[in-house]
Amino acid sequence: MRRREFIKVIAGSAVAWPFSGRAQSNRVARIGALLGLPENDPEARPRVEAFVNKLQELGWKEGRDYNFDLRFGGSDAGVMSALAKGLVRSAPDVILSQSNLALASLLKETRDIPIVATVIGDPVGSGFVKSLSRPGGNATGFTSFELSFGQKWVQLLKDVAPGVRRAGVLLHPETQANESYLQAVKGVSASFGMTVTRMGVHNATEIEQLVSDFARQPDGGLVVIPNFVTNEHRELIVTLAARHHLPAVYAFRHFANIGGLMSYGIDVVDLYIRAAVYVNRILKGAKAADLPMEQPDKFEFVVNLKTAKTLGLTVPSPLLIAANQIIE
User: Within this chain, do residues 20 and 74 fall inside the same structural domain, yes or no?
Assistant: First the structure.
């Protein structure tokens, strides 16, 4: 076989080669990415930059050692499905995935290409992996799921807004992790003197309708469960909370940064950095099935004092001392 023909055959192969000897082979790795964010989302850039910077720290320079095929799916299931099909057809060596919808879409298209997923809710309960310690398939990564958040969100809401008697829980009903969070919230709400209203949403119209209906009764507050729908429509949710004078607690700091009362949850950028470490290991020969799906270990609490003042609320001093960031 001639050299040119041999290179052509190898380039078209679906076999994933380890890249420990990439300097000798001069083969450029192909890294795909499918993120559950709109392309214009301001949160996308710092996350992707953190991933790329960590890869460079590990010796991978974009354009020299790997090509990066980055795609944004947002919260539209049809768009995400089409993007997943196209990305899998391009046969990358490894795929970075973010959001349950993105991972579910990719797993429908491939059980061979290794996937490093990040910001994933309840990966075992959602059927993505067999167990956290031994995923067993082609997907591994980093979960954002921590059931104790449910209790923490209710407690924070009550501490900052003691007059709240009703908790409206905004969630995506088809996301298993969201239903698990709802049960966690329900499990502690009575001890804090609260009743719970389940508010399943899929789009902006449903969000506006349900929040407006909920606000017609007094003493309400919102618990906004993390998912691709609430994240994509965060500006609308924060605006509605302000309009209806509803104290609210969120899972991500970027809600507080745009006017949300407070947030408690994971450091998302940290998960992208850790994902780069896994991508590096896979490109060097590790199997996704053998890499444990790791749980979050870095959390952050953010308080927006300006919003608290607007709502007529006083944040207790112990919470201010505990906060990672205070927005004034």
Answer: yes
